[in-house]
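Something for you to look into today, if you have time. Just paste the record in under my message, thanks.
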Amino acid sequence: MSSSLLTDPLVAPTEDIAAFRPPEIRQRMLDAASKGCFDVAIIGGGINGACLFDRLSRQGARVLLLDRGDFAGGTSQASGMMIWGGLLYLRNLDLRTVCKLSRARDRMIQQMPEEVMPSPYRYIIDHKAGRSRWLAQAALAFYWLLSRGRRTPPCYQRKFDELRFLNHRRQEGSLVFEEGLLRQADSRFVLHWITRNVSVRQTALNHCELEGGAYDPRGRLWTLNLSDCVGGRTLEARARYVVNCAGVWTDAVNRAFHIQTPYRHALSKGVYLGLRRPKALNHPLIFEMGEAGDTLTLTPWGPVALWGPTETAVASIEEGRQVTAEDVEFLLRHYNRNLGEKITRRDIVSLRCGIRPLAVRAGDKADCYPLDLSRRQHVVRDPALPWISTYGGKLTGCIPLAEKVARALRPALPAPRESRERPVLQPLEAAPRVCFPGLDETVPSLPWCVENELCCTLEDYLRRRTNLAQWVPRGGLGATGENRPHLLKLAAAQSGGRELGKRAVDHYTARVDAQWRTALGVSAPPATEEERS
C-alpha cells in the first residue's frame, strides 16, 4: 500500500524555503529517523500532534513527529490567544462539549501557570444587537455552573477602563466572567510541547515532507518515505503505528494512504487583524455582531490588539489560507461600529488567517453557518491497519485528545519507562535576548532559536519563535520597509553569506507582499539605497 502525497491537489509540493544552515541537531535527528524503529510516527506538528508527542515521550515511547512545514505553521498559529470553555457552543445546546472544554481550560490554568493565566473577559452589552442584558447574564451564569463554579462568578459592571474608547451610543456596561489566556503566543504554546522532549529517542522534524509510504503486514511496520526540505536529503523511517494529526490536511493524508473513516473535515476560515493596542485595553472584550448570533473579540497581546475572528465556510484549504479584501472590510466595519475611534486599512499592523477543521460525518454536506457545527473531537482507529486519525482540534482540547489517543495506543506500546531520555535542547529561559527595531521588549536571538528551537527559516523566526511578524508592521519589515536592512544582516549571518541572506529575505518579503497585496491592495516598499548598493 503506497502512495505519494504529491498526487493530492490539497497537498502541493513544498516550495523553495530558503532555509538557514541547519545545526548539528537536525542532522542527528535525520540520522535517528532513518535508523531503528519508532513506536509511533505522528503526522502533523500542530497543537494536537505536539501535545501527543509530549504525552507519548513522557511515557518513554520512541516517537517521530513530522511536519512538512514549520511546527504550528497552520491553524495553530492563528488563534485569538484564548483558552476558553466554549461559551459560544451554548447556542447549539452542545453541553457535552462545553463541559469538556471547561474542564480542559481549568486544568490548563491550574497545571500550566507558566503558559496559561486566568483572565477576566468583558462581554459588552449592546442594546442594538438584540440580546438583553438579563438573557446574557443568565447564559453566563449557566456557563459558570457547567464548569462547576471553578472560575470567578460572572458579574455586571457599569463602569470600567475600556469605556474610554468604546462607542458610548451602543454600550450599556459589561458582564465580566473568567476564562484562560495564553501568556506568550499560540505558536510558542505548541512549540513548548515539542522542544522539551527532543532527545535521542524522541525525534521531531519540521520542514520534512512525507512523500508516501507502505505497510508491511509481515513485519508489522510502516515504511514512510521522507524528504528533508532543508538539505534535500531523502530517507525512510519505520514505525509500528501512525497517528494522523495533520489538522485540515487530515483528509488528504488519509486519501493518500487509502484510509477511510466515518468522518471528514468541514473547513471554516477565521481572520484576525492586529491593530495598535488602545492604552486602556486591559482585558479581552467580546462584542455582539448582530449577525447569526456571533461575536467578535478585541484581545490585548503585547503592543497590539487582536480583532476578530471572521467565520467563513470555505471549500478548499487554499481558499481558506488567503485574507481577502472582503475579510478586512468586514472586520473594519464592525470595529468602527463598536469603538469610538475610527480606523482604516492604514492602522492595520498584522494579519492572521487560520482554517478551523470541523469534524462532520463523511456524508454530511455541512452547508450551514460554521458556528452551527459541532466542535467535538474524534479519534478513529482503522479496523485493519495500525493507523489512527484525529478530527477536530482546539488549543483548549489538546490534552484530552492526546490522552484519548494514548489510551487507544496503549496495547501497542511498550510498558511506560520510569526514566526519560535527557532533552538535548535548552529551555527558553536560557536564551540570550536581543533588541529589534520598532519593539520595546527584547526577543530570543536568531542563532539561539536555530540551535535550540529547530528554527529553519526567517519566517520561522519572525512569525513563530518570536512575535515580531505580528507586533511590528508588515511582518516585521516595518511600515515603509525600514527594517529590511536589519533583516538582511540577521539572515546573512545565519545563512553563511550576504547572497544567501538576501535570498532568504527576498523570499520572506515576497510572501508578506503577496498577502498584503491581496488583503489590502498595497505593494511592498521599494528597496533602500543600502540594499541597491
About this structure: The longest strand covers residues 263-276.
